[in-house]
Write a structure and sequence with these properties.
Blueprint: E1 5-10, H1 12-20, E2 25-29, E3 39-46, E4 49-63, E5 73-79
Parallel strand pairs: 1-3
Antiparallel strand pairs: 2-5, 3-4, 4-5
Amino acid sequence: MSRQHHYVKILPKYFMDVDSGIKTFEIRFNDRGYKVGDILHLQEYCGGEYTGRTIEKEICYMIDSPEYCKEGFVVLGLKGGE
């Protein structure tokens, strides 16, 4: 199984929550074909530019059921990272 690496923007308030460990999920439009085992590189983005801060997380769980998610969106459970 080959892991994909996804580099995505994240706003500072959400970056801080992921960094502190209180936010262990991401809700994303699934335009990248996310899969369990893939790596997310969450890049803090503020005022139209990247801050240089990045968090790396593994996707450990995924919900894409239309019963729970808007069409085209997924909930990604995150674990690990730096």
